[in-house]
Design brief:
35% helix, Rossmann fold, alpha/beta, Glutamyl-tRNA Synthetase, domain 3, 3-stranded parallel beta sheet, 2 domains, 284 residues, elongated, 3-stranded antiparallel beta sheet
């Protein structure tokens, strides 16, 4: 059975872009007769906005996006990530790193704001007099390829494009890449539908899945909803001239989200709209 999921970060209320991702993942799962799970990705505690997780869950209910089982909270699952990290450490697939972001920018001569390729500074041991900060995964020097349901064939050698990447941050928090891989495997997720901004994360996640012996789900990366200036829409953009996801506009904004997914459904009760959209989506 197909098992999909929606995994928002509680850094603010649901916005149109995240609604499109939620509806898209719901449709992919439901049209196949599958399960749809909700996971709150609240590991990055400095960015969590109090109350936003509850707002997101309430918004999903307003839109008729019912989930299966209990909501999972990443912050309550750290022991799972500890065990995964221990498994990688036992096979020398991770190493301690003393490098700061500024160190990496200087070493790679990367433009300000660009993510530098890790130069391997600590791969064979910490430099003398330096203390460990983060933990990095040893990126395999091989092409990782997958067929995205939207983007098509994607191939990347992460050793060349990003290098060894962080799985536990300098502040002690587990990195997104490790946590999401462990969660998807533990929850039995077989299909990941999310925004195209996460397409570049997928090869790193597949590398971790292989290292941990986890199956890889199928992926579908949906086009992003952009702000009027062409930038990615974020939770902080509630004041932009785009429809707000308030109680009075549920039908209007659900119809807009469905149109973004290529489905023309007239505004009505949310459940009726989703039922119609599921039929249309399944017939494509």
């Amino acid at each position: 059975m197909i098992t999909g999921r929606f995994a928002p970060s509680p850094t603010g209320p649901l916005h149109l872009g995240s609604l499109v991702a939620a509806v898209g993942s719901w449709l992919y799962a439901r049209a196949a007769g599958g399960r749809w799970l909700v996971r709150i990705e609240d590991l990055d505690t400095p960015r969590v906005v109090p109350g936003s997780a509850e707002e997101i869950l309430a918004a999903l209910q307003r839109y008729g996006l019912e989930w299966d089982g209990e909501v999972v909270w990443q912050s309550r699952r750290t022991r799972l990530y500890e065990r995964a990290l221990e498994s990688l450490r036992a096979r020398d697939l991770v190493f301690d790193c003393a490098c700061s972001r500024a160190d990496l920018q200087r070493a790679a001569s990367a433009p300000l704001g660009a993510e530098p390729v890790y130069p391997g500074t600590c791969r064979d041991g910490l430099p003398p007099g330096r203390a460990a900060r983060a933990i990095r995964f040893r990126a395999p020097d091989e092409s990782i390829a997958f067929d995205d349901l939207v983007a098509g064939r994607v191939e990347e050698n992460i050793a060349e494009s990003t290098g060894d990447f962080v799985v536990r941050r300098a502040d002690g928090l587990f990195a997104y890449q490790l946590a999401v891989v462990v969660d998807d495997a533990e929850q039995g997720v077989t299909q990941v539908v999310r925004g195209a901004d996460l397409l570049t994360s997928t090869p790193r996640q597949i590398a971790l899945q292989r290292a941990l012996g986890f199956p890889a789900p199928r992926y579908a990366h949906l086009p992003l909803v952009l702000a009027p200036d062409g930038t990615k829409l974020g939770k902080r953009d509630g004041a932009l001239p785009l429809p707000a996801l308030d109680d009075a506009r549920v039908r209007e904004t659900l119809a807009l989200a469905l149109r973004r997914l290529g489905l023309d459904v007239a505004p009505s009760e949310p459940r009726r709209m989703l039922d119609e959209a599921t039929i249309l989506f399944g017939s494509r």
